[in-house]
Write a structure and sequence with these properties.
By secondary structure, the chain is α/β, with parallel strands linked by helices. It folds into two domains: 2-54 and 92-140 and 195-277 and 446-505, 3-Layer(bba) Sandwich (FAD/NAD(P)-binding domain), CATH 3.50.50; 145-184 and 283-440, Cholesterol Oxidase, domain 2, CATH 3.30.410. 25% of the residues lie in helices and 24% in strands. It has helices at 31-40, 63-70, 109-119, 126-139, 152-164, 200-206, 257-267, 326-332, 337-344, 382-401, 487-505, and strands spanning 2-5, 16-25, 45-48, 77-80, 85-87, 142-144, 168-170, 172-174, 210-213, 215-222, 227-235, 241-254, 286-293, 307-309, 317-321, 350-357, 363-368, 374-379, 404-411, 414-417, 438-440, 470-472. Strand 17 and strand 18 (374-379) form a beta hairpin. It is globular.
Amino acid sequence: MTIIQGRHVEAGSPKQVFETEVVVVGTGAGGGPFAAELAEAGVDVILVEEGGYYQTSDFTTDAAKMVKMLYRSAGATMAMGKPNVNFMEGRCVGGSTVINAGISWRTPARILKRWHWEHGVDDCEEEHMKPFFEKVEERVHVAPQSEESYGGDSEVFMTGSEKLGYRWLPVRRNQKHCVGTNNCILGCPTGAKQSVLITYIPRALVAGARLLSDCRVTRINHDGKRATGITAEFIDENLKTRAKVEIRAQHVVMAAGAVQTPTLLKKSKVADPHRNFGENLNLHPNSKVVGIFDRKLEAWKGAIQGIQITEFMEEGLMFGTTFVPPSVHAITLPYWGNKAAETMEHLNQMVTGAVLVEDVDSVGRVRPGFGGEATMTYALGKHDYHQLRRGIALLAEIYFAAGATEVHLPYHNLGRIHSPDEIPKIFDPKLKAVDLEVLTVHAMCTARMGRDPKSSSVDSFGRVHGYDNLYVSDASLFPSPIGVNPMISIMSLATRNAAHWLEVNR
């Protein structure tokens, strides 16, 4: 196996030049499966990853160290707007699959139908995607979370939902013998989470693929119709350049995520006559709600999510528990100082959940900013703001039904309520969107699939319009938001598109 880690390359070394049939930029949910499928079919592949290459033994509960090691900008990325939206993405081999909750949903059939009908995407309906969903789910061991690893937050969600008559179900996760260490967002320390790092990357390497980590791509090389490779640089832990890199390739696959992929396409001046790259950013805006109870729950134990409330899925609302390790939880509270310290004293009686909204009227975009770094803007729409409000109210209702004594809200000017009678306060017209704390880990739709180049960036199988050999394989492809966690959708589209690539090129 060939693995070159940029941090181990001697600073000031001569430029390193590689040649390959296919270079895949990004090693997460889009890049890993695409590369593995091609490598296992005998294609010469190089995988390029800006972040580091780590093993299960490297993952610990040291939040400060892990966040710096595994997240882009130590998790401090922001989509600017009113309100700003906190955005977190992985920057390591395996990408965000290393630091996500492992929640494994197929793309809903209604979404796939919409992609086919409204955007002209070929062969994407449920019957076409089913074999790819099944293949991915088998390879990453998707299964319902075991009840033995539920935390106290799952108990609250179940109790409250059942009292109110709301549907819920056990979370399906890409895990194998998960014991519920609740360290998912800092890297799984047991290897139970079947991330791309420990599934597809080893498959690709065993099949002969080469991996360059700590390798920052600065340009896609092309002549206006064909890509010829990439220009990159090996970097150290502090992002300082150690050596220049050139990869000459017959095909280039961009799988750097819905923020970095369009940014690099634009920086590289890839032809975009209708200016679609970076447009249509969707984020699945989330807001979290904290419940305080008069009994010990120890929600910080167990899997990060044991169950999800699905009663309102068709309306574009999804609910899940989101209790992260206490050291991280403390800095994510919507207040600080004595108030935050007082709240953390109730850690063992505390539950945190969040609502995910399928964005309908919010508008965002991605652009290269200062120094070429990606910048995001996102205007939360009136409908989506109301959906967030409604989700916050429903979470409060569920907590109170399960016995909460108080509920802490994500509004800077409405801190807490103490009974169901106060839930209407959430809909006070004086509360504005800018007062709300919003976060997300899902970015998508910035290089959309579609038949018409005027409204899309790539064709039905990820090939950039106007180019013979330049492809996209990540959540950028989505023509619309999907309303559920996107990991399995990304991996399944990557598997489908890799199969199509092999049909065309082999």
